[in-house]
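Take a record:
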Amino acid sequence: MEIAIVDDSDLDVQNLMRYIRAFEDEHHSRLSAQRFSDARAFLKSDTSRFSLVIMDIDMPGITGMEAAHLLRSVDPNIQIVFMTTMPQYAIESYEVDAADYILKPVAYASFALKLSKALRRVERAEASTIVLKTPDGVVSLPPWEVTYVESEGHYLVYHTTSQEVRIRETMTSAEKRLAPLGFARCNSYYLVNLRHVASITGTDVRVGKEELRMSRSRRGPFMDAFVRFSGGA
């Protein structure tokens, strides 16, 4: 999971980086953090690749609160945790649906509790929706809208009931994320939403109006997944 830290204080950022490494060791999790020294630099970056942003409120130029409002206009799913020395900002943080706020100076015990809460919110959001981070912004889809996912080189095309969304992602990553939502691979190039399977004939899987080929190596696991999803086992 990728985390953005937006803070102009070198000392505070060093402490947060140390706390994140300690949290990784304690919880056996894998987190990647990138620092931005001001909100403007963060907003100009590819914010869609971050699942969580830890942002100082009191910064020169664009404040953290102003940046959060701008961020929400393009990304309703990213989780935000504010840092501040002024507790009165806690109420305003609800306007941008912040996961939490941390009072400075930050102690590790408090940070770990609030980071755990924010990561749970990330997990719940990702479990209930399919979040696709494109260069133009974030697309959120309910699982039933995606019919199948197609591999095209270093990109994946998410075919939905109304559009196609192309993002840079590996099929392995997509399969790991979508398998719990009822998706299974019928060959190396297609990840199928099992709720959209209309029929299976020989080596062909009909998904809507599309006929997708099942490979010999994937046929057994795909059929097993389809039977389990359909309630047959």
Q: What stands out?
A: The first helix runs from residue 10 to 27. The chain has a mean pLDDT of 91. The helical segments are 10-27, 39-44, 64-74, 89-93, 108-128, 171-178, 216-229. The chain has seven helices and 15 strands.
